[in-house]
Amino acid sequence: MFRYIFFVSIFITSLYSYDLRGNFVKESVWKYKETFLSFLQENGMPLDLYYKLDSEDEKLLMDIKMATLYQVVVDKDGKARDILLPVSDELQLYISRDQNGSFSLKMIPIIYETKQRVLSLKFEDIPSKDITKKSGNFELSLEVENIFRNVVNFKKIQKGDRLVVFYQERKRLGRTFGRQKIEAAMIEQGGKKFYKFLGADGRYYDQNAKTNDKSSFIVPCKYKRISSIFTNKRWHPILHRYRAHHGIDYATPVGTPVKAAYNGKVIFAGVKGGYGNCVVIKHSGGYQSIYGHLSKIKCYVGKRVKIGEIIALSGNTGRSTGPHLHFGISLNGTWINPALKIVFVKGLSGKKRVDFLKYSKYYMKKIENVLRSQHKVSSKIKDIEDNIGG
After folding, report:
1. Does residue 128 sit in the same domain as residue 96?
2. What single-letter DSSP state applies at residue 217?
3. Residue 277 in contact with residue 315, Cβ under 8 Å?
4. I want to staple 360 with a disulfide (CB 3.0 to 4.6 A). Which of 197, 227, 266, 383 is the partner?
5. What is the Cα gyration radius of the chain?
6. What single-letter DSSP state applies at residue 341?
7. Residues 370 and 298 in one domain
């Protein structure tokens, strides 16, 4: 494992430069509707790299975002030697060619540069535009709008309303990448302050340890057990490799009714690679849900479905080791843990609430300090302008 991490470090330092053997690192983007097979063909690599994939790795490669930036080491003959291709927020595909010309494929962790950041601004234009302009981080603007989704109407943000965000900025090869982790945030709209703080369970709560979620997804089928949980990155102790599973697998007999987890519109109904027979539903707010390995599909593209409506029957199609339903949820193109949307909670209680309130009070003080310092700077600027004007 460590030799691959070491390789990535060397890879990063060699970007845009030739080494002693004449190798050069170039960058490309993942194209619209590009597949892993077409990617291998374009880079002159053997197609059996695809056919040797296991089911979980194939699913990851099917969900690579369009315009994802990846790096290729090209030798002096113009042939690809090494490739680093991000397949999720946590893992990247590493393809390498040895001295005998044989290629190997592995999933390795993405090495991030992580920094604690504070963003403080007064809105002047469209919120997402202001956040991106001030932070240089478009992903941060998406995350801010996501956590305040059911609290603040961003269309009604006025000039002069304020925002403070404490977050961890993650960069891959010098560029912001993936979801940005917000620890605490405040939006002041029309003189009223709205707070959000990240809880230990991965959910966001207000200063009173309450959540403003107005709805939740439901478990899409009856099941005997959960055969696989959601994970972004896990070192498998037996396989000795990294595995990721962007969904929940519900072990259930073939033919079990599968229900829409929430209201939405069917945008895919058919065969989807390793997922086999599959349905994808688009929901409001940037959410999508996916239902894989179905035996029969009972809906069609364009159909609007209600929460709890039967859309299919569970099965064992695609690359599956046994009858089950694969259920996944994505937000703005990034997979999230379905358990965070299925389990509906109104707030924290007991020791969890006590611990959270200490955490939120700590950040509320920090937010107030930022606002006061911002006010002092604004006052000084105004004094200077008044003196100049006088």
Report:
1. no
2. -
3. yes
4. 197
5. 24
6. H
7. no
